[in-house]
């Protein structure tokens, strides 16, 4: 079983999240071959050099051979590379499992948050995610999960 972990990889926060997800997936899913781009020094050691064609080729090869995609969709906006990976992977017809852990999802049943949003659109207490990308994840028969533990549990039970 092969999988690909899509997330940003340039900040310490993203790199730590990637390490946490990879550790849990590898621990919980026996025999998984998880590709984590930040672990591929041939294209992501920034002291070295890899051009855009080399990077795209290396990552696309791994996407094409993966059985499912794990994508982190946190951040101010979905990382542009992650959005591209989701779009490319969707074309395989295989499931996409996304992690969206932003705490601003909480309180969706809080009537005060809804009331203020209806009165003043600038008082949005929630986060927006690109609906095209969200639609691809949902259409892939994967899903969107709010914690690493929940994500790994669902992936493990699905595959």
Automatic annotation (TrEMBL):
Top-level taxonomic group: Bacteria
GO molecular function: transferase activity
Family annotation (Pfam families): Nuc_deoxyrib_tr
Species, as recorded: Tissierella creatinophila DSM 6911
Gene3D superfamilies hit by this protein: 3.40.50.450
Name by which UniProt lists this protein: Nucleoside 2-deoxyribosyltransferase
Swiss-Prot/TrEMBL keywords: Transferase
InterPro entries, alphabetized: Nucleoside_deoxyribTrfase
């Amino acid at each position: 079983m092969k999988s690909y972990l899509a997330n940003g990889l340039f900040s310490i926060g993203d790199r730590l999240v990637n390490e946490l997800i990879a550790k849990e997936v590898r621990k919980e899913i026996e025999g998984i071959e998880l590709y984590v781009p930040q672990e591929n020094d041939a294209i992501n050691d920034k002291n070295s050099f890899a051009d855009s064609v080399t990077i795209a080729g290396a990552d696309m090869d791994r996407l094409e051979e993966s059985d499912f995609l794990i994508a982190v969709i946190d951040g101010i906006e979905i990382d542009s590379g992650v959005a591209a990976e989701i779009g490319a992977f969707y074309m395989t017809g295989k499931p996409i499992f996304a992690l969206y852990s932003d705490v601003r999802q909480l309180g969706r049943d809080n009537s005060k948050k809804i009331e203020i949003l209806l009165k003043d659109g600038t008082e949005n207490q929630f986060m927006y995610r690109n609906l095209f990308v969200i639609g691809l994840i949902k259409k892939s028969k994967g899903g969107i999960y709010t914690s690493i533990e929940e994500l790994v549990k669902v992936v493990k039970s699905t595959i």
